[in-house]
Every structure is written in structure tokens, then in C-alpha cells.
Amino acid sequence: MESIKPSERAGRYVRQFSGYSAFMPATLPPDPPISLDGSLHTLLSQADRALGRLDGSILTLPHPDLFVAMYVKKEAVLSSQIEGTQSSLQDVLAAEAKVFSTERPDDVDEVFNYVAAMNHGLERLTSLPVSVRLIREIHEKLLTGVRGQYLTPGDPRTTQNWIGPSGCTLSEASFVPPPPHEVDRLLGELEIFLHSDVPLPLLIKIGIAHAQFETIHPFLDGNGRVGRLLITFLLCEQEVLLKPVLYLSHYFKRHRQAYYDHLQAIRDDGAWEQWLEFFLRGVFEVSQQATDTARRILLLRERHRQLITDGFGRAAGNGQKVLEHLFQHPIVSTVEVQNLIQTTYQSANTLVNQFVANGVLEEMTGQKRNRRFVYREYIDLFHSEAG
């Protein structure tokens, strides 16, 4: 049997009838097999342990789903920023709270779509495995009604795409994915790999699958976002994480060029191990960051609960109820507080002023009417990473 050249371990470039060469990825798993020795083995152990600590730390939170909701928004912001959006986490939270501003970027709907796609995928995982069908559903949710809505949401491409500097032609591209008539077959093969019993550690399998998806580049737009969602869906499907709180967009954004270089080195040189080291290092770092954020949230909550108990007098009970609400909706109005605690507007306004006087809330609009108040310290725990 003829041995595979290292440069063709991940696939090879095939000349097409119209003259350009497109990359045809090889069937997974890689051949020769992934070498799990040395630094890759060490990183795998570190990443596994960090994921375990993260999963445990989330379950210690009083309301883990509230933390998850904020984390999904943070990921939506970061993943969308990689694709060129300008909206920040504060923009998204302000839009949710119906704080209207002429300075807000007009691409916040793309971030909302990402949140909707994430939540749809997590809900579907209860009855549908990670599959081509799920990937197509996620892609449709991601692009409907926003930039890219005319690029066939939910449908694999039927034309050739390519990757390169803005405005470059096909002949100038830095990477040309497989031709459109091969996309369905390649996605089908990827699905088979995902559910095969090939003896690979799960994180290694997920790292390989992400790289293969990005190489297939099956859609005209949204491939990066769908590929990053795929990582989280696979971790949740296999119950490595009970809550969807591992997102690598911050790591990929911070090391953007290295990310692209590693993916290209897989295609050009079969450098799977180097990519997997990079991927596992990201899992380790991001898991540690999320675990630390969970710890900080617990400390913040306890500090502010104590502050309310000690300083709010007879209003402490309602104050605690508002504080818990802020962990889900960190931007509020006095009317929202009034509806939450079922009291008069004047009493709600007095309570909000107590929050402001004690530095828990701050007014963010600068207006005398239709004011909104932000739980700044809580947002900053996420916003410091989300930009």
C-alpha cells in the first residue's frame, strides 16, 4: 500500500475544469493517525481537567442558567466581531432593555441571531444529534433577516467560494475550499466521523471536526460562526459540559492569525498535531477564564446581598428580589422594578435610588425621563473579555 505524503495527510489540491485548484479534504480520521505523545498528551490532560473544574464551578452558582444566558450573549458578541460586527456586549444588553441610541451599531441583530441559533441548537440536541440537518438549521437561524440573508441561509453552497484578502479574486485566494458538487458528500462524511467509534479522545475528535468543517466551508457566509457553535454543541451532546459555557471565540480572536495559519498548515503540511495543541491550549485557557468568572460572580452576589441586608432596612426583601433579577437583566428601569416587586412607582423609585446610592446600579442614559440603570460590576465581569 502506497504511503501518504505528509503534505497530503489532510487532503490535496485538485485542478478543476475551469483552471483553478480547490482543496479536497481526506476522509477522517487522519492517516497516519494522530500522535498523542509528548506535549499534545500533556495539553489534553490539562484541558480535560480544566473543563471538569468549569463544569463543577457552574453548578455551584445559585442560578446557573442566568450565568449561561449572559455567557451565550458574550460569545455571540465575540463570534460576530470576528466576522466584522461592531456591536459590544453593552450594545446588546441595551437593545434588549429597549434603550435606544443613535450611536448603537446597526449590526446588533446579527448578534441576536447568534443567540437564537445557539439556543435553537441546544434545544434541538434533546431530540436530534449533531448532524448535517442540525448544522443547516443553525445556519438558517444565523443568517435570516440580517447581512447574508441573500446567501441561501440553511443551504450548502452551489457555487465556488474562496478565502483571502478583501476584494481578491479566485486566482489570488489564499485558500480555495472544495468545489460545490462535493460539499454534500463531505458534510455527510463529517457526520459519520462525529458519530463513529474511532478511538480518539473527545476533545481531539472535536478539534479535528472543527478544522474539517472550516476546510469544507460549506456555506457562502457564516462558516466561522457555525464552526465555533459546533464545538459547544459537541461538548454538550456528549455531556462533557452540562451547561454551554465553553466558547473559544475570545481565544480565536486574540490569536486570529495563528488560528488561520494552523488551519492552513493542516491543509498544506498535514500538521494536525500542531493545530490540536493550539486548540487544546485554547480549551484550557478559556475554561480557566470562565471558572474564574463564575467565582467572581459568586463573590459579587454575596457582597451585594450582604450590603442590601445591612443597609436597605425594611426594603431589604424587595432589594434581594431586584438583585436576583439583575443577574438576568442587568439593565432595568424603575417601571420594571415596580412590576417586579408589585408596589407603587414611588416605592420602586426609592428602592432604585438606594441601589444607586450604594453603588450597585448607575444611571446610564443621562436623561430625566425614561431612565435606565445598569448593573455595571456584573456586566464588567463579562465585558472585560467581550470588548
Number of domains: 2
The CATH H-level homologous superfamily of the largest domain:
Fido-like domain
**Strand-and-helix sequence, N→C?**
EEHHHHHHHHHHHHEHHEEH
Low-confidence sequence ranges: none
- Computed CA radius of gyration, to the nearest angstrom: 23 Å
pLDDT averaged over residues: 89
User: Which of globular, elongated, flat, extended, rod-shaped describes the shape?
Assistant: elongated
User: Based on DSSP secondary structure assignment, what is the total number of beta strands?
Assistant: 5
By CATH, the architecture of the largest domain is named Orthogonal Bundle
Q: What's the CATH first level of the largest domain?
A: Mainly Alpha
Fraction in beta strands: under 5%
What structural class results from the helix and strand content? mainly alpha
Q: Summarize the main sheet.
A: 3 strands, antiparallel
Distance between the termini: 53 Å
Helix content: 55-70%
EC number: 2.7.7.108
Protein name: Protein adenylyltransferase
Function: Adenylyltransferase that mediates the addition of adenosine 5'-monophosphate (AMP) to specific residues of target proteins.
Pfam family, one: Fic_N
